[in-house]
Design goal:
alpha+beta; Herpes Virus-1; 3-stranded antiparallel beta sheet; 3 helices; elongated; transferase
């Protein structure tokens, strides 16, 4: 009986221990659940705080944007009638420096800013080119309307260089003429796109080139006329080529002459000088 009572006591203690252990595990489970719930609440609070900060930031941005727009509007109203405010470079400009060549809107910007805007869009092959105003959804620019003030690229005129250059104008905004290639360091004319014509203006140089071309063309024409045995009208100087038939030639000036000797000829088709009326030989 004592032994049986001892075993029962052991079983009772074992059961008590198991209950105590199960209770501790339950307590730990509840504690873990509470911690998870607490962490969830803290996460919710953290997200809510982040949302509030973001919302406050957006409102701050909107306030600053509204303030900038109001300041710009006030600034524009204070400008003299012959000036305007360019919202790209943020500077006051003369109306003569402005560009409004857009369809769909009347936003005005300075030509330098528009030139840079168009040049960048063309290089990116980004078409159509829209108005630079970020809030404008309808304005478009035509690159052809901007060609007058967009820097025009050209190649170095020296054949052993041929580097791509850009004519951006001189310091005073006028057309650039004498220019030095950044690659071969030789001087060229950015307007005529030829090696520098020292001592001659662009107009004088172009006239000289045209005269030289004309002289060369006339010389080549006369050489061809002599070789082909063409005749010149004694009245107006027009060159005439006889293919076949009579020596009698009626020029477009209505003067009649002999194709062989260029003497005046009448309607009888008889030349008094060389005394020929018909000749099929050259």
């Amino acid at each position: 009986m004592l032994e049986q009572e001892g075993e029962e006591r052991v079983q009772e203690l074992e059961l008590q221990r198991m209950l105590e252990q199960e209770g501790e595990e339950r307590v730990q489970e509840l504690e873990l659940q509470r911690m998870l719930e607490q962490e969830g609440e803290e996460r919710v609070q953290e997200l809510e705080l982040q949302r509030m900060l973001e919302q406050e930031g957006e409102e701050r941005v909107q306030q600053l944007e509204l303030r900038r727009a109001l300041e710009e509007e006030e600034r524009v109203q204070e400008l003299p009638p012959d000036t305007f405010f360019c919202s790209i470079c943020m500077e006051d400009k003369l109306r003569s420096e402005g560009f409004i060549g857009k369809s769909g809107c009347d936003h005005i910007f300075c030509k330098d800013c528009i030139a840079g805007h168009v040049e960048a869009k063309v290089e990116e092959n980004n078409f159509p080119i829209r108005c630079p105003d970020p809030e404008c959804q309808i304005g478009q620019l035509d690159p052809d309307d901007c060609r007058g003030f967009i820097p025009r690229p050209f190649y170095c005129p020296f054949s052993d260089c041929s580097a791509l250059l850009t004519n951006e104008g001189d310091e005073e905004g006028g057309p650039l003429t004498e220019s030095q290639c950044l690659h071969c360091e030789r001087t060229c004319c950015a307007q005529c796109r030829v090696p520098w014509h020292a001592g001659l203006t662009c107009e004088e140089y172009r006239k000289a080139v045209a005269d030289e071309r004309e002289e060369n063309a006339v010389a080549k024409l006369m050489e061809l006329a002599l070789r082909s045995r063409w005749q010149k009208c004694p009245m107006c100087g027009m060159l005439v080529e006889r293919i076949d038939g009579c020596l009698f030639i009626r020029c477009r000036c209505n003067h009649c002459f002999c194709y062989r000797c260029a003497s005046t000829m009448d309607e009888t088709h008889f030349c008094q000088k060389c005394r020929h009326t018909w000749d099929r030989e050259n």
